[in-house]
């Protein structure tokens, strides 16, 4: 049963185009509606990726052609390339359905800004261009990865390979860079999995930075212990599912109202890509949206906080959303 109120999901992957075998915009919009989600914000790591005006227009035309333009919004990629950033800012000015940019600090189809220097370039250029919108950032510090520890026959090792501190250290970096470059938009730290990351967010807010963050249903309802069974590899996500004690810590922070959004990071793949090489990361988390809302209410998250996390905060941070 869908929540009693309308919801907005600020982080989904609709695929389509060359990845239509995984999902299409239409399928994801319809799945969202069934879960009570009236607007979805699609990420730009599509094939081809959304880096400028032409591809953004083509993406919106696809949604229109599939008859699901209402409630569909998108991000453009923010890559460490000055020319691309200029084009992205231009597209954001022209297209009402562009809600912001997405930067990847870990490998992502060539879109990534790996390392501090690349990330600094993005914030600096956006500041110089006078950009005051949202930059959503996937935070994982690659220099803290221990790639050799990943073993698909023991899927819980993904959490060792990409440990919780890789996230919290990257969160710290993004906050420092946004402050140092005078970034005057909103920094949106997506899919937080480690409560320590939220300490940095809290401190940054106290120092006056406009920063928001989200959590996913899977990082709240599941833990790395759930990856111990035979189907464990199906739960491989980025950042990884964490130990139960961290998951419990995350729920406490949600109860305190420290988290702005419930975001699904809905990331459909074909089952052969999940259960065999390349063992892709991502799960169909929108399917659990209304279940998660109910679960949070049952676990003492107040309805007031939940309404903000699922609707009110998104309406404020993304004022262009109409539903
Ligand atoms: Zn994502």
Low-pLDDT runs of 5+ residues are: none
Number of domains in the coordinates? 1
Strand order of the largest sheet: 1-2-3-4-5-6-7-8
Tell me about the biggest sheet?
8 strands, parallel
Beginning-to-end CA distance, first to last residue: 20 Å
CATH architecture annotation: Alpha-Beta Barrel
Number of helices: 12
> How would you name the oligomeric state of the polypeptide chains in this document?
single chain
Describe the model:
This protein is an alpha/beta fold and 323 residues long. The protein has a single domain (7-317), classed as TIM Barrel (Alpha-Beta Barrel). Helices cover 40% and strands 13% of the residues. The protein has helices at residues 25-34, 53-65, 82-94, 115-128, 158-161, 164-180, 195-206, 217-221, 244-255, 271-275, 289-298, 303-317; strands at 7-12, 37-42, 72-77, 98-104, 134-138, 186-189, 211-215, 261-262. The protein has an eight-stranded parallel beta sheet with strand order 1-2-3-4-5-6-7-8. Strand 2 (37-42), helix 2 and strand 3 (72-77) form a beta-alpha-beta unit. The model has no long low-confidence stretch (mean pLDDT 97). The site of zinc ion has 5 residues, from loops.
């Amino acid at each position: 049963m869908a929540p009693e109120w309308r919801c907005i999901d600020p982080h989904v992957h609709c695929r389509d185009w060359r990845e239509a075998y995984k999902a299409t915009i239409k399928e994801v919009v319809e799945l969202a509606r069934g879960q009570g989600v009236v607007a979805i914000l699609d990420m730009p790591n599509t094939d081809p990726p959304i880096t400028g005006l032409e591809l953004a227009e083509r993406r919106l035309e696809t949604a229109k052609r599939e008859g699901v333009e209402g409630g569909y919004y998108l991000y453009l990629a923010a890559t460490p390339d000055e020319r691309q950033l200029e084009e992205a800012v231009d597209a954001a000015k022209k297209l009402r359905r562009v809600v912001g940019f997405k930067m990847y600090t870990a490998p992502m189809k060539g879109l990534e800004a790996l390392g501090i220097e690349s990330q600094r370039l993005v914030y600096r250029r956006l500041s110089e261009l006078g950009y005051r919108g949202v930059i959503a950032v996937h935070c994982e510090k690659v220099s803290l990865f221990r790639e050799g520890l990943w073993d698909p026959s023991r899927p819980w090792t993904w959490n060792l390979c990409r440990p919780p501190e890789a996230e919290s250290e990257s969160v710290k970096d993004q906050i420092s860079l946004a402050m140092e470059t005078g970034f005057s938009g909103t920094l949106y730290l997506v899919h937080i999995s480690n409560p320590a990351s939220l300490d940095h967010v809290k401190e940054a807010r106290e120092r006056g930075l406009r920063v928001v963050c989200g959590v996913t249903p899977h990082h709240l309802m599941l833990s790395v212990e759930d990856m111990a069974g035979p189907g464990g590899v199906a739960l491989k996500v980025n950042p990884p599912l964490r130990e139960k004690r961290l998951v419990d810590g995350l729920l406490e922070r949600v109860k305190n109202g420290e988290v702005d959004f419930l975001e699904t990071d809905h990331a459909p793949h074909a089952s052969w890509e999940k259960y065999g090489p390349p063992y892709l990361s991502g799960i169909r988390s929108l399917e659990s949206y209304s279940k998660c809302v109910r679960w949070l209410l049952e676990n003492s998250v107040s309805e007031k906080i939940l309404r903000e996390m699922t609707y009110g905060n998104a309406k404020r941070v993304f004022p262009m959303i109409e539903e």
